Amino acid sequence: MARPLSQSSIEDICKQIHSSLGNPSVLVRIFACQLTPQECQTTREKFREMYGEDLFDHFQNKIHGETSRTFTVLSLLMLNPHERDAIVARNAIFKKKDAVNYKALIEIYVGRKPSHFFLIQQAYQNRFRRHLDQDIMRIEPPHSYQKILMALGASHKAHSAEASVEIGKCDAQRLFQTGEARCGGFKIDEEFVLEILSKRSIPQLKLAFSIYKQIYGHSYTKHLKNASNGEFEDALKIVVKFLNNPPKYHAKRIASSIDHEI
Q1: In angstroms, what CA-CA distances link 77 with 14, 40, 161, 204?
Q2: 69 in the same domain as 95
Q3: Residue 1: predicted pLDDT
Q4: Which residue among 26, 72, 160, 202 has its CA within the 20 to 30 Å range from the CA of 226?
Q5: Number of structural domains, the chain?
């Protein structure tokens, strides 16, 4: 196992980086071949201390022309996971006018642990001087995804030590009773769904939808595939699919992206 770099070694690397800022091949060799992810973060901090410049911002400003891909990779190497998610969230909301990438936001809100999600919110506020939740609330035109995202944001404050099977059974039964079992056919009880999304932790939500399938023989999303469903149902379907099977969800997203590029 390699020994961690000494303070003097990191300072020497920073000097080498500073003299090679115009040479992307040297920068790639330093960051991708010589440094671990943690050492990349340490080097970024030390470089900022020594030269008053953030390497992430420097590399971002170089993303154009033939070396754009190289500097994109270099900029990503500078980020902690929560910083990277904060930037993804910002781009999802503001990068394309009138085209919010809600699926990217769902992946952050559903796929991150509460401790990581808290760091994302902090990184977002520190970098952009704005609050992530407030930016989501202010999205125009309004969309059902906003209600779901705000509820999921609240769910990260549910500090239950571990998921409860009993609570999961109760939630699954209530989902059935307020959905499939209603007279006149299946209809989402939006108020109840938002209630459990906001009051249950992510592991507890996963357990509830898993128990639903065990009890009733099919996924909760079965009735959400109806073409006549509204905006809220379509948004909820994405959330439940991610909760039920994140790897499968990501695989389908990647396949869909590849198909669009071919």
Answers
A1: 15, 7, 33, 33
A2: no
A3: 44
A4: 202
A5: 2
